[in-house]
Write a structure and sequence with these properties.
The protein is mainly alpha-helical. 74% of the residues lie in helices and 3% in strands. InterPro entries: TPR-like_helical_dom_sf (IPR011990).
Length: 260
């Protein structure tokens, strides 16, 4: 099998070979094209083309819009996956899994969305945290705690996620080179956790703090995304005026940042 895999792998275009490596990393079995796009950080139509190229060479099996790597292919591809590339891809997939727009859409849901696979993802992130703590890099440790907390939000272990996230905003700010975006991400994750815990008022507070940071250090698109979070929290509070105002502001920011 190894010789056959190597022959097929050598024939792949670089983008298809990269996607194959990344597909070997997430826990679980099947993955959809939307999740594959998030994993590879490419548009979904491009991901579908790459998946079709892999399927044509027998490197993935397809069932509708779901794709699976055979176990032997997964093992071979994982051997070739770079650590830094893999960690960034798993973070993108985790972000995709926790996005409300995809979390409720079963046909397009990621391979992390069912409870068992979310638990596996949390286990992976816990291992990454242990490795970061052994390495001793303060920034890497904080980022690994954040990643684990995001995974725990996906499993529904909100108390533990909030416990991990609570100190992170100030710890990111206290680094020798403060990580403003890390602080904003941690505040956003706290908002997500509290929103899932049916505490939209607290969630709004955290989203508001993240927005203030992004107004100083972020892009209009990042600020627009935060207004969408604020709108979601307003919806949970049945504050329709605040929800509409936040969505209008998000739209305005996207237009301001657009071409022309």
């Amino acid at each position: 099998m190894r010789a056959n895999f190597e022959d097929a792998y050598r024939e792949l275009a670089p983008a298809a070979a990269r996607l194959l490596r990344l597909l070997s990393l997430p826990p679980g079995g099947e993955i959809g094209s939307a999740a594959a796009a998030a994993l590879a950080d490419v548009p979904e139509p491009e991901a579908r083309e790459l998946l079709a190229a892999l399927a044509a060479r027998g490197l993935v099996s397809a069932s509708g819009d779901r794709f699976r790597l055979p176990g032997d292919v997964r093992d071979e591809a994982r051997e070739r996956a770079g650590r830094d590339e893999g960690e960034a891809a798993l973070r993108r997939l985790l972000d995709h899994a926790l996005t409300p727009a995809t979390a409720g859409d079963a046909p397009q849901a990621t391979a992390l969305l069912d409870r068992e696979r979310r638990a596996e993802a949390a286990d992976v992130m816990a291992e990454r945290l242990g490795e970061a703590e052994e390495g001793g890099d303060p920034h890497a440790i904080l980022r690994a705690r954040y990643d684990l907390a995001r995974a725990l939000i996906g499993t529904g272990d909100l108390d533990r996620a909030i416990e991990l996230l609570g100190p992170l905003p100030e710890e990111f700010a206290a680094l020798p080179e403060p990580d403003h975006h890390g602080r904003a991400r941690a505040l956003t994750a706290l908002g997500e956790a509290y929103l899932r815990a049916h505490r939209p008022v607290a969630a709004t507070n955290f989203f508001g703090q993240a927005l203030e940071i992004l107004r100083r250090h972020g892009t209009p698109d990042e600020q627009a995304a935060m207004f969408v979070h604020i709108a979601d929290a307003a919806h949970r509070r049945a504050d329709h005026a605040a929800e509409t105002a936040a969505l209008i502001r998000a739209t305005d920011l996207v237009r301001e940042d657009g071409p022309g």
